[in-house]
Amino acid sequence: MANSSRTTLAGVRRLAAPSVAGMSWRDRGQGLIAAVAGAFALAQLVLVQPGMGLGWDETVYVSQISAHAPAAYFSAPRARGISLLVAPVTWWSSSTALLRVYLAVLSSAALFVALRVWRGLFPPRVLALGGALFASLWVTLFYGPQVMPNYWVAIGALAGTGFFLRTHADSTDRAALWGLAAAAALMTWMRPTDGAWITAPLLALTLFFPRWRRLRLLLALVCGLVAGAAEWIIEAYVGYGSLLHRLAEGSRIQGGLGWSIAIGDQLRSLGGRALCRPCAGPLPNPAVTAWWFVLPLLAVLAAAVALRARRPAAPSRTLVPLACAATSAFPYLFLIGYAAPRFLLPSYALLAIPVADALLHLVTGPDGRWRPVTATLVAIGLAGHLAVQFAVLHRTVARTTADHQGWSRTAAELHRLGVRPPCLLTGNEAVPIAFYAGCASAATSGHNANTTAAGIASTAGRIPVAYLGAPDGRPPSYTRGWEAHTVDGVRILVSPTARGGRG
Questions:
Q1: Are 126 and 353 in contact (CB under 8 A)?
Q2: Secondary structure percentages of the chain, helix, strand, coil, to 5
Q3: Average pLDDT, stretch 478-494?
């Protein structure tokens, strides 16, 4: 093992050697990666409108540290990492546009850092292409500037795997050990269970290291995982009685974790469905889903290329991220009964660099007679892929913006009817609309249940309360005698206490 490590390190150093006079590999590599990260930031700001408004889950996360509205109910599976990440903006400003710009810049900087970790493990053109492949997915562009944790888990996974490989290449690289711990902490800070699934192969691989190196790697990984999840674990004992009870509650909210093939659900979500639950209806156009079937084929090609390479480091630097991508995707493909495209962001990030290496091998590796043909096919495929991604992104942004504008109109109508802070909303889509209106939200059933009908009725005697429902739905008994109004197909029942707030 020690001899292998020295050989691998030598390979890394050869990659890092100056390639042209006056310009080192590191200079050129950072320039390419910086260009990809800058283009990613610009694409987010141009293609995902900063004024799009906040989504349902976003309002939950933002409300935890915001002066704009009371904190929404925080269910068991959620973690507070993303709320803390955006706190520098949300605690003093309610501007969604400012929040989007902040996250677009931060997410692009994080992508640059994560790709830079891999310097010396792959050539700069592979890293730049891998970053571009990941950054150009519609789901990456859509969720990069959003207050959602999945993109940040992906960044932690990409950086953490790179740091792990660097420690394998150089046992004296203390910075890589600290980076590995920080990346593991980032993942569990955002989504504790995701961090555990992603790092499972890394923990298993430490068993093949010499004892002293194994202990250092285990210490870095375990300390990072625990540090990131510490608040979530403490909250489990304070709010749920134990960690196992919180995990069980999280499983219940997600429909009960167990064998459930969700591959078809994930395919349906590729057309731009933020949450496919229940996931019914036809599959998207084959042009939209084609890349999803090509991706595992390119991953297999990447593994084959790495195994055939003569460099000792090649297999590990390709197979390790592929293994982490597989364990990251496994629970979302086989253990839950619904889908959301953002769930697989960590897998896409981990696949990006090996897939980029495979694509470049297709262009440069085959016999010279076929090289023009393969290069043309790859170029046509990538062009078509980009066109599909941007088309799906455009439709998704337009539909999402329209939905959020509908919530904003409902909130404005509630204000006109006298439902102003302090106030309470309950019923359909009460969580996001309550945030827009500056109200608290409550539910007597479902995943966000946090009160009773009697509790809502009692609150209606003190502050304005509104019930939101379908025009033909049956409202709860405590709304008897409340004024009825309709806006954008939403039936609004307003408690008598709201009359004093009408202007």
A1: yes
A2: 65, 5, 25
A3: 94
Taking the C-alpha atoms of residue 28 and residue 361, their distance in angstroms, rounded to an integer, is 20
How many beta carbons lie within 10 A of that of residue 477, not counting itself?
8
10 Å CB burial of residue 241 (0-12, 13-18, 19+) is exposed
Give residue for tokens 């891999």. Answer: 118
Q: State pLDDT tens for residues 50-92.
A: 989 999 999 999 999 998 899 999 999 999 999 999 999 999 9
Q: Cα-flanking dihedrals φ and ψ of residue 415, to 5°?
A: -60, -40
Cis peptide before 422 (omega within 30 of 0): yes
Instruction: Name the DSSP letter for residue 341.
Output: G
Long-range CB contact pairs, 481-484, < 8 A, 24+: 483/417
d(Cα 14, Cα 314) in Å, to the nearest integer?
Answer: 14
Instruction: Indicate the pTM of the whole model.
Output: 0.92
- Within 8 A by CB and 6+ apart from 162, the residues are 114, 117, 118, 121
φ, ψ at 243 (rounded to 5°): -65, -40
Distance CA(55)–CA(150), nearest Å, equals 15
Cα–Cα separations (whole angstroms), residue 396 to 142, 271, 273, 392: 8, 8, 8, 6
Chain centre distance of CA 58: 12
How far apart are alpha carbons 464 and 436 in whole angstroms?
15
Residues 142-188 have pLDDT tens digits of 999 999 999 999 999 999 999 999 998 887 889 999 999 999 999 99
| Distance of alpha carbon 402 from alpha carbon 396, whole angstroms | 10
Separation CA 452–CA 427 (nearest Å): 12
Helices (H), 22-65: 25-47, 56-63
Token output for 204: 């298993």
- Identify the helix (H) or strand (E) that includes residue 8: helix 2-16
Residues 433 and 467: their CA atoms lie apart, in Å, by: 11
Cα distances from 451 to residues 76, 128, 465, 496, in angstroms, run 16, 51, 14, 21
How far is residue 246's CA from residue 250's CA, in Å, rounded to a whole number?
Answer: 6
Residue 500's pLDDT is what? 67
